[in-house]
């Protein structure tokens, strides 16, 4: 690969995690911005996908806006962990599944179109796996964004923090919207007119697809639309979940402060489940080396005056499954 190819790959990975053109020929627009031919962009994106550096190009839906989800965990004997992880992975509702350093050592995210389907899936997982599931649904969001600034300029471009946001019932989807969500879950096809391809799958006009996606972006139902990178393959191999036990009266204010810190990709409140789980404030910190992440956590806890609160740091060890959520 020559320097031009490397430069194009870098720009695609870094610059277009957001600000993706929602138009009939988006890859031609990207090519115009990069000063290359449309075919160069399409080949580069396909190459990045084959290398595992990107999961897809497309929509990241905001949590609990069109469906329901939960973080869940199990405490599994180490000798059975891989086998039970494989069982959990078979459920289509599970989109992320990691081993983490803790008594609760298997952590997964389950997503479904309705609360009934989600609870049915969790019940089935518990029954098949043979171990109780700790359910930790999202209660308040302070910041959720797995974009990565690869140019060392701090926040990935366009990143936005949010004030604490509690959740109401998800937006019900009509039949057209349900079909569109299904089509979007797989990402944009890497063709010259990708939205036209989606429209043919949904059974509507390209204009309707673009209008609905733009509206969902404006309403915050789609959190961002663009290149979805895979952080591990880009060198962010140190992945830590930092959890704190914060008094309920203070958790929102502290969560908002923590969410404003660079390097904090996710920050949210989840319920305690006593006596098994005492922590209610969660954040994710990614780095290229464990020592780097440990130092960042220590600095954050000291500067934000969190050292008096009980905490735990759960580094990920094994990635058993990682893909986009399935809502429909």
UniProtKB/TrEMBL annotation:
SUPFAM superfamilies: Winged helix' DNA-binding domain. It is an enzyme of class 4 (lyase). This is siroheme decarboxylase. It comes from Candidatus Accumulibacter phosphatis. One of its GO terms (molecular function) is lyase activity. Pfam families: AsnC_trans_reg2, NirdL-like_HTH. Residues 68-142, 234-321 form the Siroheme decarboxylase AsnC-like ligand binding domain. Keywords: Lyase. Residues 11-54, 177-222 form the Siroheme decarboxylase NirL-like HTH domain.
